[in-house]
Automatic annotation (TrEMBL):
<feature type="domain" description="Endonuclease/exonuclease/phosphatase">
    <location>
        <begin position="29"/>
        <end position="126"/>
    </location>
</feature>
<dbReference type="InterPro" id="IPR005135">
    <property type="entry name" value="Endo/exonuclease/phosphatase"/>
</dbReference>
<dbReference type="GO" id="GO:0003824">
    <property type="term" value="F:catalytic activity"/>
</dbReference>
<dbReference type="Pfam" id="PF03372">
    <property type="entry name" value="Exo_endo_phos"/>
</dbReference>
<dbReference type="InterPro" id="IPR036691">
    <property type="entry name" value="Endo/exonu/phosph_ase_sf"/>
</dbReference>
<protein>
    <recommendedName>
        <fullName>Endonuclease/exonuclease/phosphatase domain-containing protein</fullName>
    </recommendedName>
</protein>
Length: 188
């Protein structure tokens, strides 16, 4: 995964060393939720519930969440998730108690276009109210692969004027990661 601010025309921004204090901080979580953790009608098993609970526990510190292996049931389950009260023993995670995942991440993009053929092929990107999303699915050219890449443009809405808003661009590709992992395993 690579990120680059889009306020320059330089295509090699990821290779430029920058003063980190000049860029806003964005907290991102990526999670392979396992398509089998939630049924097609949105009912969670223990694994699915735990995945949703983890996202909820960390939602107060996240700006963007990228999910793999989603389907329509995951979308329903995430947007209707009610955390367990035992998450809050001794006041832990009190920032999240009253809010739902849908409220925490109002900007959402879900792609289930191939889940009728490949159960684990869905993806999602969630963003807080402070970030706008533009997502384009890029069909894989790799033979036998059913995971498409996502081209994500995130606009930071925390700036007070439109002119100073910073846009970030990221291309996520599960295919590339799979190829790297396969090469790494062969070397081992």
């Amino acid at each position: 995964m690579s990120f680059r601010p889009m306020n320059s025309n330089n295509p090699n921004l990821t290779n430029i060393i920058r003063d980190e204090t000049s860029l806003p901080k964005i907290n991102i979580m990526t999670y392979n939720v396992n398509f089998g953790g939630v049924s097609w009608n949105g009912e969670t098993n223990l694994g699915g519930y735990r995945a949703l609970q983890i996202i909820h526990e960390h939602s107060h510190e996240l700006d963007i969440v990228c999910l793999q292996e989603t389907h329509q049931g995951w979308e329903f389950a995430l947007n209707h998730f009610k955390p367990s009260e035992n998450m809050y023993h001794e006041g832990l995670h009190s920032k999240n108690k009253a809010s739902s995942l849908r409220a925490n991440f109002p900007h959402q993009f879900w792609d289930h276009s191939k889940t009728d053929q490949y159960l684990a092929s869905g993806s999602a990107v969630l963003a807080t109210k402070d970030f706008d999303l533009q997502v384009q699915m890029l069909e894989s050219g790799v033979k036998g692969s059913f995971f498409d890449a996502m081209h994500i443009v995130v606009t930071d809405l925390r700036s007070s004027t439109t002119k100073t808003k910073t846009r970030y661009e990221s291309s996520l590709s599960i295919i590339i990661d799979e190829e790297k992992n396969q090469k790494k395993k062969k070397k081992e």
